[in-house]
Amino acid sequence: MNTPTIMKQSRWVPWLYLAPALLVMAVFVLYPMFNTFVLSFMDKTGTQSAAVSCVAGQPCWGSFENYRYALTNPEMLQALRNNALWLLLMVPGTVITGLLFAVLADRVRYEALAKAIIFMPMAISFVGAGIIWRFVYYIETGSGQQIGLLNAVLVAFGGQPVAWLSNPAFNNFALMIVGVWLWAGFCMTILSAALKSVPAEILEAARVDGAREVEVFFQIMLPIIMPTILVVTTTMVINVLKIFDIVFVLTGGNFGTEVIANRMFKLIVTDTGRSMAIAVLLVLLTIPVLIFNVNRFRQQEASR
Amino acid sequence: MKPFQRLNRIFNHLPVHLALILMCVAWVLPTMGLFVTSFRNSEDVRTTGWWTALAARQTPGEPEYTTYCASCHGADGKALPAADLSDPTLIEKYPRSNRLLAMLRKEINGQPHLTDPALPENPNEALEKLSPILTYMQDFSGSSQDQSRFTLRNYADALVGYKGTQNYLTDCEQGVESALSKFKCTAADLLNPEGMGRAFVNSLLVAVPSTLLPILLAAFAAYAFAWMDFKGRMWLFALLVGLQIVPLQMTLVPIARMYVSLGMEGSFIGIWLFHTGFGLPYAIYLLRNYLSGLPKEVFESVYLDGANHWTAFWQLAIPLATPAIASLAIFQFLWIWNDFLVAKIFLSNNPVLTVQITNLIDPRGGNWHILTGAAFLSFLVPMIVFFGFQRYFVRGMLAGSVKG
């Protein structure tokens, strides 16, 4: 970070430029974060210690009572389990799908069109995407025809219609598919830019040496773009930890699809203390990514 | 290239083409279903899949009519001269199926109207049978109003927020009471608080200031980070990098409480400030990276010419950073336009598009014609922005990790 040495300013000038932004961030980001932390140790209404909601003869963590809820309540456990499932399946699914698109689209003339199609869901709201997929998964339980695409296909092939969103056997996967549909375009765009920056000479040299396309991809391209894959993955981890709108619109967190952010939203009005404890939990979960990002930033700055 | 070689090339690439095209089709089908449905006649939407929109149309309601009515009234409806179902004036007395149900529940000559088979006891199930029968009778009596395959009426429903079983315009034309009680059937209905028209205005009122304000504040801060020397610069900037990924759930409640104590709850200023605070870390990060990437010599030469920071900022930094500002503006605008959680919490009395859509959801799934129209109305602006400024959009995304 070198600045021109010619322009010397008095010590307080930079702070004049910074003040408006810092002030707004202090009032609307930093102070509320601190306040959320404090509220997470308070009761429902945020007026007295969370310990008052302890019931005699039952487990109690004192001031940490809301955290006991966040870490042991069955609905919260389900939410944590589901978020873990999203992390394990949806994040790799999205990154691999995005990579596949990037690799395939790189080889055809209609690359721009194909990419625009895959990327389009990123432009619309998650709520809108939720409506789109509610319609795809819709099940007609009466005597009428299936007007949801997926069930119509099933019935056309002689199957029985399936309640995609309320059957706990696959509703979580149905929601994750929506997530992949939404974010694959994001992963594709970033990975595609990384693929294009791989020097063509290296690839040519490998091909001349008789490497098959698969070998070129796995042994040359993949290692080169690995840092980018890591960045995309961490961004997706954050997105998945905060996943809310899709679940809210498609299932409302019912039928075993609860997630952390939806639980937090449901409790905002009825039990502030618990809701804030869940928010703090959410932040704690993002800290590894935060450290990763700050370290990456410092490396970038060092190599500038 | 020889023809044979070219053929060989295409053949070698065939799996690539097939896979890519298949995936593109899979990606586009869900949205297409929504789009096609939003233009379909509401009765068709209820009874057939959107992919049949162009297929030969089966007459809706014919099987139900045959089951319940044909044994007495005849297949053409003329068997009972006292109740000629092919007479449009008779059918027009029943603009909606619930009136038909009320009539059918009354006895005729001391006997129940329908015995073999009887209508389901549950009114909702009975209406489900009667609605197609009514459509069928309207069809053959010639009193039916709007039977065209494609229509814009769903969009009118969505704009005014009309949740009837028939279209708003149809009910207005026929003077149906439920339409008249809450609606005036004039342009004033466009501002109905439950409609997408009003929500569209609200979305604009939220998104435009919430885009401009953080960019202005961020530009000043980014300039300071890029071209000024001050103590704690690195430390402060690393803090911003960290703040970018703080979930907004972490700040919602304290700010909401603060607004209540200030009497600002539900105000537009409140949501502008929230989005500004939350958008700033990413905005500063992106602009600072862009500004500090500009050649140092340019700035040195203007400083040598005697320009101070204020002039350098407005006449050099801002014009040079226009591409980055454009990317940022598009990103921030779409982010706010598509936001649901913040608007739901801070502006539930003035719903924006995303919130209004969720208000229109019918848990039983009976109003797809309105919902699809409403969703597409909310896509209009993002689609224009996306296809118009795709280049900036992608550039903005590549410039930094994406906040959320």
TrEMBL record, chain B:
Gene3D superfamilies: Cytochrome c-like domain, MetI-like. Keywords: Cell membrane, Heme, Iron, Membrane, Metal-binding, Transmembrane, Transmembrane helix, Transport. The chain crosses the membrane at residues 16-36, 204-228, 234-256, 268-287, 312-334, 367-389. Residues 200-389 form the ABC transmembrane type-1 domain. GO terms for molecular function: electron transfer activity; heme binding; metal ion binding. Residues 56-141 form the Cytochrome c domain. It is a multi-pass membrane protein. It is found in: Cell membrane. It holds the Pfam family BPD_transp_1. Signal peptide: none annotated. GO terms for biological process: transmembrane transport. InterPro entries: Cyt_c-like_dom, Cyt_c-like_dom_sf, MetI-like, MetI-like_sf. One of its GO terms (cellular component) is plasma membrane. The keyword Transferase does not apply. Belongs to the binding-protein-dependent transport system permease family. This is ABC transmembrane type-1 domain-containing protein. It comes from Levilinea saccharolytica.
